[in-house]
Amino acid sequence: MSADAINVRMLIDGALVASPGTVDVVNPATGKVFASAPRASAQDLDLAVAAATRAFESWKTSPIAERKALLQKAGDLILAHADELAAIFTREQGRPLPLSLQEVQGAGQWFHATAALDLPVDVTEETDARRIEVHHVPLGVVCGIVPWNFPVLLAAWKIAPAILAGNTIVLKPSPFTPLCTLKIGEILRDVFPKGVLNIISGGDELGPLMTGHKGFAKITFTGSTATGKRVMEAAARDLKRVTLELGGNDAAIVLPDVDPGKVAEQLFMGAFFNSAQVCVATKRLYVHEDIYEAVRDRLVKLIEGASMGDGSEQGVLFGPVQNLPQFNRVTALIEEARADGLTLYQGKTPSSQGGYFIPLTLVDNPPDSARVVQEEAFGPVLPMLRFTSVDEVIARANDTEYGLAGAVWSADLKQAAEMAARLDTGTVWINQNLQSTPLTPLAGHKQSGVGVENGVYGLMEFTQPKAIYIPKDTSSVR
Ligand code: NAD
Question: What local confidence, expressed as pLDDT, does residue 352 receive?
């Protein structure tokens, strides 16, 4: 696809809208601008919120069967356009094409899976005298804000449940990855009644404009913990509801009873998939001292053999990091570790100039106080840490302000389950990683978030309970 073939507009009130201002979109594999996206003005935002407010009046009472059917259709359309979307995805996000395709297809499947959820009326009392029903009613207009690491899937996680619950939504992709999401808006343009789904794009100024807008009843946000705090502050002014899916510094703990070679392969992808730009990636790897060297040596081999390059080229497994600020941050972390005299093992980067390529990097047993251990790197640098006892490693794993996910690797499932119970995180995987399903909540504990996404748990976050007391007869008023 040629660069000028990517012509994107915003979806506002059922119409595709351009804007005088634009935001440049850079291909992270080249460092060059290859397309642009509309830069929404405050007036565009007002129009989108007004359209969503009008649409809410009838959408909120539409039969759930109708909403399900339309979400199903939306999923079908995303799947039907998956190849076209994946090609754009790779150019703006940097991920290798087959993995881009996986994300786009995952988004379509998420629409389907969400369409299968229900919002049944609960009954809290049923006597001869009365019945008390609890209905889960929609909130109003939802503000959706999405980051650049999984731009399409995370948009689906917000759009589908918001709409199923009877809300309308105005969604904003990251300024770094607006294209694919806007294309999806174009593809879904005629699916929902106009104003139910609105997608607008812009620069750094748009997020705060949205979170401060009085027309929103709820903000569903995925991004860094620092930004999440700003979002919550802005929401507090109008008591907007919030769901915040934020950062993590996830620990994987490897016990000495596993096969080091087999586990190393899985740890490798758990840490470096998407060039480690995954909120639930392994970001601190704790390996028991008995097998530390064996696991490290295998990981180093995998790192040295990994193919990194432009995601549109065949055979590439790792792309660049997605943007220049992130490239600078992660590079600084690595250089600081080097300057501190820590031992680094690194993979190769492509020889082409200009892309945001960072070699896969393993930092060999740094002190717990090192910045590369303490901070969420969100890039391909993995601290590997030696441990001796279970109690010690659980304490070290939990010694963080984050609480997103974690993993335990062991041949002893009973011991692994006991350790899982002791990890202060919203998700724990045993002998696997990076898994999520449409029915399972993703919940950030501690400063990794507020509220949850996915499944009925996530769907409920787009509703509020409404109790209705219904007498069995009317003699008291006749
Ligand atoms: P970010 O916080 O910089 O930006 C996220 C989004 O917020 C972008 O759309 C951005 O434009 C917008 N934004 C920026 N400032 C804002 C403000 N003041 N008010 C409102 N919106 C604002 O995050 P990022 O760098 O795009 O994404 C990486 C982070 O996201 C990592 O910390 C990662 O762990 C986290 N993440 C979490 C999950 C999860 O489910 N918990 C999933 C993916 C990514």
Answer: 75
Tokens of 263: 């586990």
CATH topology for 3-246+448-466?
A: Aldehyde Dehydrogenase; Chain A, domain 1 (3.40.605)
Residue nearest to atom 18 of ligand 1 (CA): 208
Q: Is 245 part of the annotated catalytic residue set?
A: yes
Q: What is the pLDDT of residue 6?
A: 85
pTM over 0.90: yes
Return the closest-CA partner of residue 51 out of 196, 183, 192. 196
What are the sequence ranges of the domains in the chain?
A: 3-246+448-466, 251-430
Q: Whole-angstrom Cα distance, residue 442 to residue 157?
A: 11
Backbone angles phi, psi at 250, to 5 degrees: -75, 135
Ligand 1 surroundings by CB, under 6 angstroms? 145-150, 172, 174-175, 207-208, 211, 222-224, 227, 230-231, 245-248, 279, 376, 378, 404, 442, 444, 449
pLDDT beyond 50 at 3: no
* Catalytic status, residue 143: no
CATH number given to 251-430: 3.40.309.10
Sheet holding 130-138, edge to edge: 122-126, 130-138, 463-471
CA of 385 to the centre of ligand 1 (A): 28
Percent of the chain with pLDDT over 70: 99
Q: What is the band of 5 on the pLDDT scale with cuts at 50, 70, 90? A: low
